[in-house]
Amino acid sequence: MTTSNTGTGADDPEVRQELERLRDSIDNIDAAVVHMLAERFKCTQQVGRLKALHQLPPADPAREARQIERLRRLAENAKLDPAFAETFLNFIIAEVIRHHERIAEDTHNAQSAHEDPARP
Questions:
Q1: How far is residue 30 CA from its own chain's centroid?
Q2: What is the full DSSP assignment across 63-110?
Q3: What is the per-residue pLDDT across 25-53, written as a single tens digit (0 to 9) for each?
Q4: If I label 97, which of 1, 28, 65, 107 is the partner at 20 to 30 A Cα–Cα?
Q5: Higher per-residue confidence, 91 vs 114
Q6: SS3 state at 3
Q7: Which pLDDT belongs to residue 43?
Q8: Rounded to whole angstroms, what are the CA distances from 112 to 45, 47, 54, 106, 115?
Q9: CA-to-CA distance for 110 and 96, rounded, in angstroms?
Q10: What is the overall mean pLDDT for the chain?
Q11: pLDDT-based confidence at residue 10 (cuts at 50, 70, 90)
Q12: 98 Cβ neighbours under 8 A, 6+ residues apart
């Protein structure tokens, strides 16, 4: 669905100023979200390395279920759709597991190469 920008508010300087103010806030929030996700992934990379070193599985379904339930409660309290929050977290969890699987494979390959120096 598209909407037209030909309404009377489009030419009103006060409306345009308010729209710009709100968009600036949205842009700042988007930047903060990206930085927070980057920090989160730095932590999950460390978790992935720890799991790989100790041969733990990349996924932890029990923790994931607890986190989803926790995020749904947080979303409800923040007046955010819990289903959206769950979908968002599931996307992040899938990406984290993918990273953990890659880290585990890289760690295994490095350990195998170290144990057998003749191996390419």
A1: 13
A2: HHHHHHHHHHHHHHHTT--HHHHHHHHHHHHHHHHHHHHHHHHHHHHH
A3: 999 999 999 999 999 999 999 999 999 99
A4: 28
A5: 91
A6: coil
A7: 98
A8: 21, 21, 15, 10, 5
A9: 21
A10: 91
A11: confident
A12: none
Q: How far is CA 40 from CA 1, 89, 114, in A?
A: 34, 12, 31
Go through the chain and tell me how many residues it has. 120
In this prediction, residue 114 carries a pLDDT of 75
The CA distances from residue 82 to 30, 42, 79, in Å, are 20, 25, 9
What does R_g of the chain's alpha carbons equal in angstroms?
22
Q: Could you report the per-residue pLDDT of 105-119, keeping only the tens digit for each?
A: 999 988 888 776 665
Instruction: Give the C-alpha separation, 28 to 34, whole Å.
Output: 10
